[in-house]
Amino acid sequence: MSDVINSTEVDSTGGGKTLNYILVTVTPAVFVLLITIFLVLFIRTCYKKKWRYKLVPTKDEQDHPRRKSSSKRTVNVTIPDPPPPKIKITTAPNLAEPTSRYTQFTVQLLHKPPVAAECKEITDGEEGVAGKQAYVCLKMNMEQNKLWVEVQKAVGLPHREDGTPADPFVRLSVMSRERRNSRRKVSSTNHIERTSDPTYMQTIDCGSVIKEELANSNLQIQVVDHLQDLLLAEGEVGLDQVEYSKSIRVPLKALTQQPTVGRILISLYHDKTAAKLSITITKLELLSCTLPSNDCWIKIEVTKGTKPLLKKTKSVKVPQREVMLDNTFVCNDVNDASCLTLQCSLVTTVTASLMKRTKLLGKVTLGSHEHGQALRHWTEMVDTPDTQIAEWHNLT
Q: Which site in 64, 103, 188, 244 is 20 to 30 Å from 51, CA atoms measured?
């Protein structure tokens, strides 16, 4: 009997120790787990609300200078649309106090958009002054799909470099607005000697023009000095913007003339079958006052846009006022010469600070984007392939 009692006491004592051990060990772990779950839920709830309670600073924090310098804030800026043009609305004089249902209004734009200058009809006795706005007076007629232009007079043409009046004549050509280098026919008037206000009264045949082409064609007007073959002024007028059989006045843009150092004879030949462009420098004439002290070189550069196709140099012995060269430079793979540009430069060397440097004396550029004689020479070469065309050009 005593043995049974002893065993029961041992069992009860061991069970009590086990329960105490479980309570002491598991209870803190459960408590820590509950606290962790509570913190996770709290953090998740605050994150969903984007910490709205912590992002709003108090008034003292807003006024604090350190708070202002260290805080980072995002400001949404809305750019307003440009305001509409201002419109001035006035009622009609007889309906200043309307009593009926309908009222007449006059709408006037206070800020008008710029409008291109139009040709103006001239009146008798209207004269210009040299040195001011230059213009030319024309009268156009269409007869049997042919454009006839009567060149009446030109007013206010610029003078030469030495201040003397030029010997001007007017050159007309019909060109397309899409292809600036395409010209159907070039016609010219006779030149008038030593005047800035020449009177021509000549009728010129500018070739055949279909009525459907009037909306896409311009009449190019160039005033050229006959003695020096320099472009004095130029202008354009749309064939769809004029009133035919009426005199119009077309403004001209006077071109600034640069001092020339001489002139050069250039010959162009485009072999369309072999796709070659031959450039021949035949003769060079320099002014006595511009003769360099050292030898110089002639540089030939042919480019297509920004891509160089040909770059050659040729030495020239000086001092000589006239130099016979007869040098030919060939540029291959030229199927379409209208998109090329030719630049001919005269370069010499000068000594400065015990160092030799190159100095540009003069140059001339030929191409479809030029004007005057350079444009005419290049266009004639493009329009008449397999033909050698030589012309003098001034070096400026």
A: 64
Number of neighbouring beta carbons within 10 Å of residue 388: 12
DSSP for 236-302, please give it.
EEETTSS-TTSEEEEEEEEPPPPPP-EEEEEEEEEETTTTEEEEEEEEEEE-GGG--SS-EEEEEEE
DSSP 86: P
Strand 389-395 vs strand 217-225: parallel, antiparallel, or unpaired?
A: unpaired
For residue 319, whether the previous peptide bond is cis, meaning omega lies within 30 degrees of 0, is yes
Kindly give, in sequence order, each residue whose CB lies less than 8 Å from that of residue 126, ignoring residues fewer than 6 positions away: 249
* Local structure of 395: helix, strand or coil: strand
How confident is the model at residue 284, as a pLDDT?
86
pLDDT at 152: 95
Please give the Cα distance from 267 to 381 (Å, whole number): 10
Per-residue pLDDT tens over the stretch 339-373: 899 999 988 877 766 677 788 888 899 988 887 77
For the chain, which domains are there?
123-254 (2.60.40.150), 262-395 (2.60.40.150)
pLDDT tens per residue across span 101-118: 444 444 444 444 433 334
Rg of the chain's alpha carbons, rounded to an integer? 44
* Measured distance CA(164)–CA(159) in Å, rounded: 6
Round to whole Å and give the CA distance between 220 and 235: 6
Distance CA 220, CA 375 (A): 13
- Selection from 331, 371, 316, 382 nearest residue 171 by Cα: 371
Contacts of 80 (CB under 8 A, 6+ apart): none
Distance CA 87, CA 357 (A): 63
d(CA 235, CA 226): 18
Compute the C-alpha angle 231/124/250, nearest 5°: 30
**Which residues fall within 8 angstroms of residue 67, CB to CB, at 6 or more apart?**
57, 61
| Residue 335 three-state SS | coil
Amino acid at 83: P
Residues of the chain with pLDDT under 50: 1-12, 50-56, 67-72, 74-75, 91-131
Length of the chain: 396
pTM of the predicted model as reported, rounded to 2 decimal places: 0.46
Diameter over CA atoms, the chain? 159
